[in-house]
Prior knowledge:
The complex is a heterotrimer of chains A (288), B (720) and C (163).
Chain A: E1 5-7, H1 12-22, E2 26-29, H2 33-40, E3 48-51, E4 61-64, E5 68-72, H3 77-82, H4 84-89, H5 91-98, H6 103-108, H7 111-117, H8 124-130, E6 134-138, E7 143-147, E8 152-154, E9 157-158, E10 165-171, E11 179-185, E12 196-205, E13 208-217, E14 224-225, H9 227-233, H10 240-247, H11 264-286
Parallel strand pairs in A: 1-3, 2-3
Antiparallel strand pairs in A: 4-5, 5-10, 6-7, 6-10, 8-9, 11-12, 12-13, 13-14
Helix pairs in contact in A: 9-10, 10-11
Chain B: H1 16-21, E1 36-42, E2 48-54, H2 56-60, E3 64-69, H3 70-73, E4 77-78, E5 82-83, E6 85-86, E7 92-93, E8 99-105, H4 108-116, E9 119-124, E10 150-151, E11 164-171, H5 174-182, E12 186-194, E13 206-212, E14 215-220, H6 225-236, E15 243-245, H7 262-273, E16 277-280, H8 283-289, E17 296-304, E18 310-320, E19 349-357, H9 372-390, H10 394-400, H11 414-429, E20 440-450, E21 454-464, E22 467-472, H12 481-493, E23 500-504, H13 521-541, E24 549-557, E25 564-575, E26 582-591, H14 599-618, E27 624-625, E28 628-629, E29 648-652, H15 675-687, H16 698-707
Parallel strand pairs in B: 1-16, 14-15, 18-19, 22-23, 26-29
Antiparallel strand pairs in B: 1-8, 2-7, 2-9, 3-8, 4-6, 5-10, 11-19, 12-17, 13-14, 13-16, 17-18, 20-25, 21-22, 21-24, 25-26, 27-28
Chain C: E1 6-12, E2 15-21, H1 27-34, E3 53-56, E4 59-62, E5 75-77, H2 91-99, H3 108-121, H4 127-133, H5 145-156
Parallel strand pairs in C: 1-5
Antiparallel strand pairs in C: 1-2, 3-4, 3-5
Amino acid sequence: MRPFRYHRPGTVAEAAQLIADLGEDGAILAGGTSLMTLARLGLAEPQHVVGLAGVPELCGIEGNSGDGITLGAMATLRQVETIPPVRRLAPGLAEAAHQVATVRIRNQATVGGTLVHADPSQDLPPMLMVYDAVARLTGPTRTREVPVAELFVDFFETVVDPDEILTSVHLPPASLGVIAGYLKFLPRTQDDYATISVAAGLTVVDGCIDTARIAVAGGGSTPQRCREAESALVGGGTDVAGLAAAADLVPEALDPVSDARGSGDYKREMARISTRRLLQRLVSESAT
Amino acid sequence: MTTNLPFAIPEVRHEGPLKVTGHARYTADHALPGQLHAACLGSGVAHARIVRIDTTAAEQVPGVRAVLTAADIGDVRYGRQLRDMPVLASDRVRFMGQRVAAVAADTRQAAEEAVRLIDVEYEELPTLLDPRLATTPDAPVLHPEAEAYRLVQGARHAPAHPNIQGELVVGAGAEELAAAFGRADHVFEHTFRTPRQHQGYIEPHAAIVWFDDDVCHVISTNKAPFGLRQQMAAATGHPVDKIVVYNKFIGGDFGGKGFSLDEYVCFYLARETGRPVRSIMSYLEDLSSTAPRHATELTLRTGVTRDGTFVAHSAEVLFDGGAYGAAKANAHLVPHGGVDTMSAYSVPATHHRLTAVYTNAAPGGHMRAPGDVQAIFAGESHVDMIASELGIDPVELRRKNLAGGKTEGQDPSETAAVIDQVLLRAADGIDWSGVRSPGRGVGVALYRRKGGTGRGGVVMRALSPDRIQVITGAADQGGGTVTMIARVAAATMGIPERQVEVVQQPTAEALFDSGAGASRVTRVLGEATRLAATELSRLIAEPGAVFPVEVAQEVVAPADEDCGAYGALAVEVEVDEETGQIRVVEAVLAADTGTVISPLAHRGQLEGGFVYGLGGALMEELPVEGGQIMCGTLGDYKLPTSPDVPPLRIVSVAGESGTGPYGAKAVGEFGNLGVAPAIANAVARASGVRLQQLPLSAEAVHARLRQTGPESAPPREPGG
Amino acid sequence: MSDTSERITLSVNGISQEVTTAPSRSLLEVLREDLALTGAKEGCGVGVCGACSVLVDGKLMSSCIVPVGMVQGRAVTTVEGLAAEDGTLTPVQTAFMECGGFQCGICTPGQVVAATALLRECPDPAAEEVREWMTGNLCRCTGYYSIVAAVLQAAKAGQGESD
Ligand SMILES: Cc1cc2nc3c(=O)[nH]c(=O)nc-3n(C[C@H](O)[C@H](O)[C@H](O)COP(=O)(O)OP(=O)(O)OC[C@H]3O[C@@H](n4cnc5c(N)ncnc54)[C@H](O)[C@@H]3O)c2cc1C
Ligand code: FES
Ligand code: FES
């Protein structure tokens, strides 16, 4: 791999300034699990990296039911998996984080890195979509908020500008009441990327589905909300037929690539089955 | 004699403390003063004529000490038997990743940078990727110069077609075979395919080579130091007694470490620069350019009488040999195990034709029971398919046909009784006839694995009556060779094991050894140790013995030695009828593996073998598209992880004793053999889906379930 | 190539170290080549196999994909730093010996470091937890049975470490 210089800003402002100054030659380094892998394979060749590990404002996770949950960009996936506020208030997110690769990767990979890397098969993004999460970005001239559902553009591409830093991700309090879960379909090994995975969240009132969120990873060039399937659920009951009918709408929304983890057709079909199974699980959890 | 042996006590690995503390030094852990780092340019095309190589820019990179191409070293060819593989491609490249140029530099970064700057102009040639087309009239000929190729030990028998690497035909003549098939009431024919697979050792290939005057020193990951020495001498012309190989710790082998690549490149770079040169492959290079298991197509035919007796069997086995035959260790240049399609059965007339052909892919090599894995997957699936067609229980059909079981007018032999026990214990262990819920089913596979053959020796030295040394040239790739030797020596001499020290010596000082492969170590080195220890005991007991007392002992296990171990693997699987996913619920491995010398290592080989087979059965595949491998890292070429592994029970069956010391048998290439067919058979019985191709992926099961239609539940094979 | 070298200080197995190197090099390469600590191995080189496992500030990581620039000022523990100075093995190391938790041994330093990290976080894990935690440490030799047994035995024997 090509060598690079390492910069260690102490604040977001410093980091933003560095990124602006370095321009195309610079890259942000969070946990490094993606960037280092790409660099080692010769697929990324930054001349400068701006390491965010020493920026305290980006670390940590805070949350309560009144304010929602804020995940610092440098919070590790292992923290998301294990920290009590997430486990208690957004258990679906902890579940999805737990499914990422291996404990070693989760110790190193960060919330910001996982979003900006934008591999469409990653586990956290669909779950964050289910929780209506919003990413906060800081650029040289402005800060802005972008819903995670609108963050992704294409394979490994987001709306985050090269000179912007993702500082945190916020799960609004209203989203925390849902019963959410994650189903990662892993036909080969436990440490693999998903062939397809589904995140879903429901609220059920008096046996009737009041709100629904479904998002799929591995189904195309970006993780995707499946709004038609969601609409089909809302207002309906929790009977298997209704859930299955909604799940049947999922494949149409997808355009997965064929690869070692399965053909496009197979992934579509597995998305349908996984969605139905997950919805059934959530409905039964809602009943207890 | 075997009653009072101390082998039941679990062994303590002699090298254990080094391994658990990180102090065991593997090849890549060595750093020599002044050493340079090697990097190689691999071909970016599958088949091409090399028009021009420009190394000017590479030579300018600061820190670069040498840049070599075939123009510098000549057309040097090497191989384990057939010397067809160029150290650096001269006029042509024949697979993607083949070494075209090599750089030695002060740092790895500089070497890699220089490699990036080498410019090669190729004129692409038509590729041959499908082995079935290798001998068709339009097939491009990969090695027009094949006739000139030589074996390490002499001239080569020219094949019928230049694209044929090797061939082996064994068994009954055409007439006899036809007559035998004529006696059958039914003839069944099925075709099976198995993919290219990588050995998946965790340590990629590495080598360090340096010269001391005219002596060439080598530390490398090659598990057969004496073989490497001989192959290097044959290729480079350097005298064999001026090459010293020190290989000690090998970080996993599974057949792949018998073949060396970068030792040769390092030889020339070291000679050119006068400095030690070290090469460490990245895993990408290892996946794309070392010698994977041959992809194979097998067509099996079996003639059976109405009552299920096998009367004739033939197999056509076609191996995708890749671009070079260099990685195969036998003079037939085919994976020999391909003949074992029906080795656990008595069939009056059999015929096997094994053919390996050239294609534009990485050279096919050896991987844990080469050929056997493919043959047993095909054979044991075939037997179940026959059982299904005849409506006979698969266990019963096997019992009817056991090897040594039914010579007319005679009682079944002892062998047949042992195999029968092996089979029944596995079947009982999995509760063969039990009632199962929908989606579940059991399957079994029965097999014989031949014992190891080859040559090896030890030198034993008594420094005093209670200080014994055993000197061996064997490298340890994990099987526990050193500890096994010590235990055999101690047991034979009746002394505590701590009085025995095993010393691994370089090729210059130790007795010849065929290398840790082909299941030979315990058979050959263990037996040499036993014989040497017996003699040493006698000598030191003599009045007036003068210390040190030394004994050298060599042992040869002939290639036709009739010693095998029988195994039966039974599994229960659950098939998810919506996703096709196969879950192995439980497995039972029954085996007559003879006297156990090191219980932990023995169990470890069987357990590790089983999981190795599990990966091969369910997920491992190294696909090549247009000559390019489609799995560049271990992130794509998935190996089983700890939660992927089902419970495994191992059942020992007392059988005939082995030819190793105290009746020991080989188990290194044993535990993996039955896994794929047992699972395939269980899946067929659980879901009605019969897969004749590996890996048994969820998607493949799903596709077949869909073909038969979700509503019309597929017919299950009987007994599921 | 411009010179990107800088001076990086870090603590390795409790000893403060200073290396002058390109910060882009992997922590693994620096440990192995510059500090002669070859216990951690390079297998896959891309974070999958766990042969390069080390602890960074107590957290289990893949040193092959940690740029050394990232560990400036941090504490790294490698397999060499586990056993006592007099060579006494830790309960984890002893258990790997007694249970046959290795064969070729190339994965073993990583397994031992990973198991040690587990037992520090969770001194009495269930077999299921052990299997899951160890997911990221591939072993091609043992089939994992003996590794899981070793970790459970080490847990029984007390803490993962003799400190
Ligand atoms: C072996 C392996 C297995 C994996 N398996 C899985 C899996 O099963 N499921 C899964 O979901 N993922 C998996 N991943 C991917 C993993 O989740 C990502 O690599 C990781 O989340 C990236 O986070 P990081 O902090 O390491 O990012 P880095 O590698 O540091 O950065 C990734 C990208 O994001 C940019 N970036 C990082 N932080 C910011 C920020 N705050 N603002 C702006 N840009 C930023 C970087 O410039 C870079 O382009 C796997 C990765 C590996 C190496
Ligand atoms: S070498 Fe680092 S995880 Fe494999
Ligand atoms: S002991 Fe060889 S890979 Fe684990």
